[in-house]
Amino acid sequence: MRQRKSIWTFYIPIVFFMATVLFPFAWILLTSLKEKKEMFSAEFHFLPLEPTLNSYRELFEKTDFIHNMWNSLVVSFVTVLIAGIVSFMAGYALSRYRFKIRNGLMYFFLLLYLVPSTLLLIPLYTIFNKMGILHTQLCLIIAYSTYSIPYSVWLTTGFINQVPYELEEAAALDGCNLFQRMIRIVLPLLRPAMVASLSFIFITSWNEYTYANMFTNKDSRTVTVALSNFMSQYNIRWDLITAGGIIVVIPVVIMFERLGENEMKKMDQICYIVHETDNVATAMEDVTAGDIKLTGENKNRKGEMIALQQIPFGHKVALCDMEEGDQILKYGVCIGIATKKIRKGMHVHLHNMKSAYDFRSAQLDPVTVHAKDIEYKMY
User: Fold this and answer.
1) In which domain, by residue range, is 36 found?
2) What is the residue-averaged pLDDT of the chain?
3) Helix ranges (DSSP H) in 97-209
């Protein structure tokens, strides 16, 4: 009974997904392979009788569809780049610093995203016209960035709040400045969340129609406007619409396929190398003894190695054998001295190193992390 129930709960969502998503997509694909006379024939055939690529040939040879796709790619990627940089910088400030209007700004960013995009059409059109950038790619980039950045900042702030600040404090003790902490500590941990947020912005920019229809002309037209122009009052070019619909989906499918492949790679135990000259890497999660994957600045090393011990999240693992007195390198500088022999793959911490920045850290108890020269009394 339980097995039958699990089968139903597994197959029903799959059937529903195929019926609502895959079937329409399959119809578009098969229709794009039909001859014009077959498309408008009174007798319906789901499969093409004589498959042909004439629709695609006409789309590329007799229209500006390739140029329209290039416009969409430029606008979408530049929007993602701007939104990513601004949202990360603003999100970090809102997450790590406390000031009076911080909470008000968070609600303000969320409310900005709730404003209907159509309300901004006339103001943006007037501004772009006076600036002399109407009917250019730049005006679309500004419009999409204006609308997507508030939501991206709001999401990024929440993601950064989940990153333990203790990691940044440990990096600061090792001599890492603010910019290095942001780029080499926070950003790698934030990468999956940022990818999800920026993918949403890319798809939104790629599929947007209203702004593109208002702010572009023949030279700056995007694919969504180009597809709509294949429909007129007296004629609908189903051959070009279906062929163009398939071509438009390809960049998005490739992007998600690459992202999915990268996420599968991240299922491995990962340790991050901050600088190419480092001889230690930082565990990006709780690592058990066994195979680990090295990421970051690992050009001069193999991408994998074996951890000999359990490495707690945020702690260091040795990338090579070290003798007593050897320098421990992280961020490209010496952060400590080995107090005993350390083998490649071993856990590097206070039990086998002392800090090069604080003399008293050499006297810390490796268990309590308290200075040994201070007596702690229990009351």
Assistant:
1) 2-52
2) 82
3) 102-114, 121-131, 137-161, 165-173, 178-181, 187-207
